[in-house]
Each structure stands twice: as structure tokens, then as C-alpha cells.
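One record is kept unedited as follows:
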Amino acid sequence: MGADDEILDVFDEHGRQVGTKRRGDVHRDGDWHLAFHLWVVAPAGVLLQRRARDKASWPGFLDASAAGHLLAGESIRDGLREVDEELGAAYVFDDLAHLGVHRVADTERSGTVNRELQHVFAVRDDRPLAAWRDFDRVELDGLVLIGHDAFATLVTAFDGGRTGAIAVRARSWDGSREDDIEVTADEVVPAPYLGSIAPKLRRVGGV
């Protein structure tokens, strides 16, 4: 079964479940559905994933450390499945810091309107960047670590619509090589909550 054939719960604009639908149809019709986002943080900064460049949505963009859809009938706790699949990491749900449920509606470059009720969490993990060896090489092109100050600078761009004008230094890791890179805000999958979570991620990271 392909990703477009996965069955998702569908919700109205008030968050009430109204049925189920194929994932492909959900994205075609712009239906509200559930997503799970986990931000992994450490004193050194915030860990982002680089989405694979052949992904149907936001190819090559930077996103939350782990992110994905909740399938029909899954609970929010089941979102940890995405973390295991994408990062090869296992966490205890009760150890996660809940950062809220955010309504995110974005228009992808393909013109598709994606409407998600994103359940957002954070967790502290102090392992160094090069220790992340078990991430999914198909779904992810790699990982990027951005210091807390730099991340806060980067995501404030979404408040003022200046995404192309802001760039910060970061470290990238493709599973075999670590490099210094420059990251611009227009490389990040947009979400209106990004600016508000930067200080919360700093606290979870122990800074």
C-alpha cells in the first residue's frame, strides 16, 4: 500500500471527527487531519530533519526533528512511531514536553492545500550530531543542528514575512560527514507556531 492509500481520520474546522479518507484524497480536498511533530533539543541547539529531495511535499526542506501523519484510529501517543521510523530513536511519551495543538494550513508549491491539527512536542536528547546514525536514509537526506540563538533568529522571520532575508550558521550531518552550513528561513517548512516555541525549546534543552 502506498502512502496515498493510507487511511486518515478527517476533522471539521472545529476539530470534530467527521469520518475517514484516503491520504491522497485528504490532501487533494484540503481536509483537516492529525499530525505529530517532535522537536529534539539539547544544550547545543535544535535538531531539524532535511526532508528527502524526492518527497512529494516540501522536498529538501528542513522540518521538525520527526513529523508525520497519525493514521485512522491512532492515538497521539502512537506518533512516537514516526520518531522510531525517521530517527531510529525511542522515547517514553510521558517524558515529552507538550507544546500545544496548532492549526496549520499551508499551500505547497504544487498548489495543494494541507490542513493539519499538529500535536507538537519536544524532548531533550544530548547525543552529539554525529551519533545520529539510525535515521531513515530514504525519508531524510540528513539532519541539521541549529544553536538556540540562531534558531530563534531564524523562526522570527515567519512573523514578519522576511524568510528570504534571514540566514544563520548550522551544522549538517548526512550519516557520514558533518559540515558547517548556512541555513535560510525559506528552507524551513512554514508553520505559524515556530516563533512561539523557540523559548520553550530552549528551556527543554536546559539552556
The longest strand covers residues 113-124. The chain has a mean pLDDT of 91. DSSP finds five helices and eleven strands in the chain. The helical segments are 23-29, 80-87, 148-155, 157-160, 194-204.
